[in-house]
Amino acid sequence: MSLRKNLKDTDMLIPDDKVKFHPPTGLSILIVGAGVAGLMSALECRRKGHNVRVIERVPSPSTEGDFFTIGSQVIRHFQLHWPKLAEEFDRINYTGLVAYHKITGERVSEPEEPSFVNVTYTHPDGTERTVKWHRHNRPKFVAALLDQVKSVGVEVSYGHRVTDYFEDEEAEEAGVILQDGSKLKADVVLAADGVGTKSHNLVSGHDIRAYPSGFSILRTAFPIELAMEDPDIAARWPLYDGSRPLIEMWLGEGLSFGVQRYTDLIAWHMTHKGTNTGYESWSHHIDVNKVLEITAQIPGFPEIATRLMKKTPKDGIIDWELMWRDPRENWASPQGRVVQVGDSAHTFLPSSGNGATQAMEDAISLATCLQIGGKSNISLATKVHTKLRFQRTACFQLLGFINHQRQNNTKFAAVEADQAIYKTHIGKWANHDPEAYAYANYGNVVAHLVQGTPFKATNIPPGYEYQPWTIQGLLDDIESGKTLQFTGDWA
């Protein structure tokens, strides 16, 4: 059993009767990729009145993956604009508690809710609502997005492998070339096809360099009953207080380990110094015996943890190499008709806790900017979107780097005296409404781009003055013993 889970076609689509759609814009949008970024882009573009089509390279609806965090600001957006989908996400949410441990399994902080990500707001119906932490199983989350996309009449076609992107200034269109040589065209093309996107040559003029981080992450999720067959595993990882899911983060020197105990699934992951065996792919598996060779070298690593690993089904462990990429300020083609969203534009390490969330914020922002700009201002609208989003995503990429160092670098080793050193943190500045931000700032960014009027981003940590940075520069600072400190309020 692998992490891959086929998504079966169903007639039980999520209704759209409470969604308020904007008037048609006449814009045709082709979206490449039916993952989180692509499907969210489809929903938001459809809501904003654009004509949307989605293509995906795999031959049938399917997804792979284990668990990720979805930011409260995105869940709030669903509650406001996609209420039935929000109800489904509440139903399938795996929210729980988090505890921190040494790599030997010794607990150093008691289970707690990550309350810093909560969002409280007044709903249009007059009720005050608090959106709590959302932890989701990726296959289930993507399936819900796909169901909603189908319900609003967006076509999703499979088996279309894109080999290149293009735009035609004279014809005022963009498109993709498929593996069979055929072309698909639209007013705007969204490249939501991940780190391997073929859009880089058009957007940046070259492939984007990736730097090996020196680490790989091993990750898996499988049915809880397989693990609970062992009574010792069942005793070691029960539900907290008999009913609540619990995530344990084990931190060590040069590695980290985690166990996520849910009601129907159990997941574990290990970040370790890589051996150049991994790839950035959900389809690259590693045998559990190779994993045990790694854990055998960890002093004090408990035998009960290796027993849990041995319960993983065959071909169930993904070996994903963690790669660094510097922030890129440009995500749009020269004429602005091909735009990168999600991982195509900005990759995140798992330690950022924000890859899926920022992909969905991209979708909300871009659909809104295209609605404001309309068919006659596509190039300007996509450039405004990129300006609105760049510094914010770069801040989250920086946060992911810092969290990775906290979890895996000896200079950030866990000590009981200062829990802030090792706890993964996302500040209150993460709370953000990308739709309202686009409406409020579109004109300001146009003035900045056309007339040179100063524009200051306000969707980043308050008081932070953005300075361009590179991965190598940060690594050099750490190597020289410098403490990574930044201006502004990141709390």
Automatic annotation (TrEMBL):
Named cofactor requirement(s): FAD
The keyword Flavoprotein appears for this protein: yes
InterPro entries for the chain: FAD-bd (IPR002938), FAD-dep_Monooxygenase_BioMet (IPR050493), FAD/NAD-bd_sf (IPR036188)
Membrane-spanning ranges: 21-43
Keywords linked to the UniProt accession: FAD, Flavoprotein, Membrane, Monooxygenase, Oxidoreductase, Transmembrane, Transmembrane helix
SUPFAM superfamilies documented for this protein: FAD/NAD(P)-binding domain (SSF51905)
One Pfam match: FAD_binding_3
Gene Ontology MF terms in the entry: FAD binding; monooxygenase activity
Residue span(s) of domain FAD-binding: 28-370
PANTHER family the UniProt entry points to: FAD-DEPENDENT MONOOXYGENASE MDPD, MONOOXYGENASE
Family note: Belongs to the paxM FAD-dependent monooxygenase family.
The protein's name in its UniProt record: FAD-binding domain-containing protein
Species assigned in the record: Bionectria ochroleuca (Gliocladium roseum)
